[in-house]
Design goal:
With about 200 residues, the protein is an alpha/beta fold. It has one domain: 2-Layer Sandwich (Nucleotidyltransferase, domain 5), CATH 3.30.420. The chain is built from nine helices and five strands; from the N terminus they run ββαβααβαβααααα.
């Protein structure tokens, strides 16, 4: 990584590309110089308990954090890749400190944000700031889906967070979809096609 010599390096990542329900959530974070974050890794490798335990430490070591959500409706309109990108761009623009260098997890953003950007494949394993962003995005999204579980208890969002588990798909077959389901994702798309 050639991010040396920059004052404010931002890491950005998103959570929620794969689920059948709920938003995609992105986080952008600028860590303090020399931030020490033992235990911080790709959010998918950590248990929910471990992610929640790391949030306080990450916030202590951050100069700026910004979170952005893109709704299921927008995901259906523009597609999930574009929505994830829009969420990242929005999160970066929402930082209270303007970064002078951006590290993004496998996403090219430079044209849209006008800031030098490095797209890192498996970035959450190679950059501490991307890993920290991935944890905040995941914890934020999980919390949102727990709140949605209270509104729509028949789907079990508390357990699967909207991902296409067998129980979730069965619940959709039984109850139909709710306002936070993504209508362009399979098997929902086919199910809706069969209802017309």
């Amino acid at each position: 990584m050639n991010s040396h010599g920059f004052n404010f390096v931002c890491g950005t990542d998103e959570a929620g590309r794969g689920p059948l329900a709920g938003p995609v959530v992105a986080c952008a974070i600028i860590l303090k110089k020399g931030a020490k974050l033992p235990g911080v890794d790709d959010s998918k490798k950590l248990s929910e308990k471990k992610r929640n335990a790391l949030i306080g430490l990450i916030k202590e070591q951050a100069l700026a954090i910004s979170i952005s959500m893109v709704s299921p409706q927008e995901i259906d309109q523009v597609n999930i890749y574009r929505s994830a990108k829009n969420a990242m761009i929005s999160a970066i623009k929402g930082l209270k400190i303007k970064p002078d260098y951006v590290l993004a997890d496998a996403m090219m953003l430079e044209e849209e944000i006008g800031i030098p950007t490095e797209s890192l494949i498996k970035g959450d394993q190679r950059s501490i700031s991307i890993a920290a962003a991935s944890i905040i995005a995941k914890v934020t999204r999980d919390q949102y889906m727990k709140e949605m579980d209270e509104l729509f208890p028949q789907y079990g969002f508390q357990k699967h967070k909207g991902y296409p588990t067998k129980a979730h798909v069965e619940a959709i077959k039984e109850h139909g979809i709710c306002p936070i389901h993504r209508k362009t994702f399979e098997p929902i798309k086919s199910m809706l096609g069969g209802l017309k």
